[in-house]
């Protein structure tokens, strides 16, 4: 594996996890046991797509991650979506995602994440 493109290797491994998850969901098999891994794999596939300058695919994967993730990661992945929008010049969408992440963190009583997401929101919206 030495010398391999790490993004390609990562994509293959995370795709394997999401394929296993999707197959189990489709077959109505026990998928809850790997749902947490699938949510993280979708988020990381989103990151890989973002690194490859494929914003739409990145957003799609991260939205899949948000749908099946735990409450903490819903906030994290929603903020990551905001980061992608901010980095690609979609300021209004970034603001909306950061506000959503703040609401999720507040609902979970996660003051540390609220503060982190508020800083991201402040950085993009200005004083």
Largest sheet features = none
Termini separation comes to: 48 Å
CA radius of gyration: 16 Å
Question: Count of DSSP helices?
Answer: 6
Structural class, from helix and strand content?
mainly alpha
- How many domains make up the coordinates? 2
* Total strands: 0
Q: State the helicity in percent bands.
A: over 70%
> What general outline do the C-alpha atoms trace?
globular
Give the topology string: H per helix, E per strand: HHHHHH
Q: What is the arithmetic mean of pLDDT?
A: 93
Share of β-strand residues: under 5%
Point out poorly predicted stretches.
none
Describe this structure in words.
- The protein folds into 2 domains: 1-69; 70-127, Serine Threonine Protein Phosphatase 5, Tetratricopeptide repeat.
- It is 82% helix and 0% strand.
- It has helices at 6-26, 32-51, 55-68, 71-87, 91-107, 111-125.
- Helix 3 runs antiparallel to helix 4 and helix 4 (71-87) runs parallel beside helix 6.
- The model has no long low-confidence stretch (mean pLDDT 93).
Task: Compile the SSE list and pairings.
Blueprint: H1 6-26, H2 32-51, H3 55-68, H4 71-87, H5 91-107, H6 111-125
Helix pairs in contact: 1-2, 2-3, 3-4, 4-5, 4-6, 5-6
Question: Any descriptors?
Answer:
82% helix, 6 helices, 127 residues, 2 domains, Serine Threonine Protein Phosphatase 5, Tetratricopeptide repeat, mainly alpha
